[in-house]
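A quick word before the example. In earlier lectures we treated sequence and structure as two separate objects. From today on, think of them as two lines of the same record. Here is Amidase written that way.
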Amino acid sequence: MALTLPTLVELDEICDKLRISLSSEDLIAYQGMMQGYVDAYNTVDAIPGKKPETYYPRGGWHRPAAEENKFNEWYVRCAIDGEADGPLKGWDIAVKDNVMVAGIPMMNGASTMEGYTPNVDATVVTRLLKSGARVVGKANCEYFCLSGGSHTCANGPVRNPINPERMAGGSSSGSAVAVATGECRGALGGDQGGSIRMPASFCGIVGMKPTFGLVPYTGIMPIEITVDHVGPMTRTVADNAKMLKALAGKDGFDPRQVYADEQVQDYEALLDKGVAGLRIGILQEGFGWAESDPKVDARVMAVARKLAELGAEVSQVSVPLHKLGSTLWAPVGIQGLYATMLVGDGYGISREDYYATDLMKFHARWRDQADEMSATTKLLMLFGEYVNARHGSYHYGKAINAVKTLRAAYDEALTQFDMLLMPTTPMTATEFPADDDVSQVKGAFEMLANTSPFDLTHHPAIAMPCGDVDGLPASVMLVGRHFDEARLYQAAAALEASL
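And the structure line, produced from the sequence above:
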């Protein structure tokens, strides 16, 4: 990707944009001074790229026909066999389509990415294959993962397998459906505002958003580095714990993983220990949102009573700042994703990471196809540019600073309790929105009030089904201390056995 010296006309245009005044003579001088930098950039471009090793042979792939893609859960199907033996031997795994699998197409739900094929496996894919799993396909996800509904994917809406007239949740929509229908035993999901837990809630499965950095994000298309999480989606709690065990730990690339190795636990160790003596706080602010279904709130309160019957110490706790969590997410999510995923061509700058430069080069073409984008992407892009032009990163910085106070408020509550309990989503699976952009955006973001705060504060959170409301799954979310996933699995397993 050779760089050329800017012309004097181009330099003059840049000066206008940056409000720099240079004379004609100055322009010539500055042009000359840039030659050394152009040469340096081109030397860098010629350096052979170092990338993660890719293991395990892979054959072809195919776009599934309608009869094998009933709910539009799959983007492509494939068959990549891992080790002959291992803890996940015999497991079929679906991979969310923002996760790189070498030689298998990836479009991250976006028409602007169609035609891109990664040349590396994400670390999580390598780890699953090394554990004996088999990758059976890429699961559809929402357009650039920017929706909690399942209606924005460029390949068409992903339908809820329990009621196809309802949404499957997003953005890991196809992953949730593939698990719920039994087409695979586990799936990889990504979570920046609730995108593992919201589809888990709508489809009635188990989804874990691990502590930030516990599972490496290397080889996954980012949204914003401070909220990027990847984790397991399964039908059972035990399977979820086993899958997380295969995924966790440092990989040497991901800068999110400062403390990951020191904090890896045996996530299966407490599955049969019951909840006697566990202290569980019912988070008052997690109930009674304007969009809450009172039946969902009641169903989750019944779960709290069940946990008390099983021997847990259950009582109410208040964290008033929880109501501010999704508000704080807005500047971080909007400014962060605009700078990283769009202006930064998927990665942005200023961190040590594995930069998938082939993806960055391919993704840069979004600038010529912006009209194709989903309403959610357009809205966040337009507002991000508006704020950047007038206030720069000021509000992003204010929000990140405020997140520390929010994190401390949860941490204080978690000194009194082992975990917090609330509905995962305030409602069950919603209907598909109308085609107008206002309805499309509302249908994408109305369900993330309880999930998004914990992407900011990095606490682990597990969503699991807890009964039906009017024939659709309700879901309870348990939130724990950082790197205390094993205790969340302990409570979730006891609850699962009792329902």
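Notice the following. Residues 61-498 form a domain with the Amidase signature (AS) enzymes fold (CATH 3.90.1300.10). We will return to this example when we discuss secondary structure assignment.
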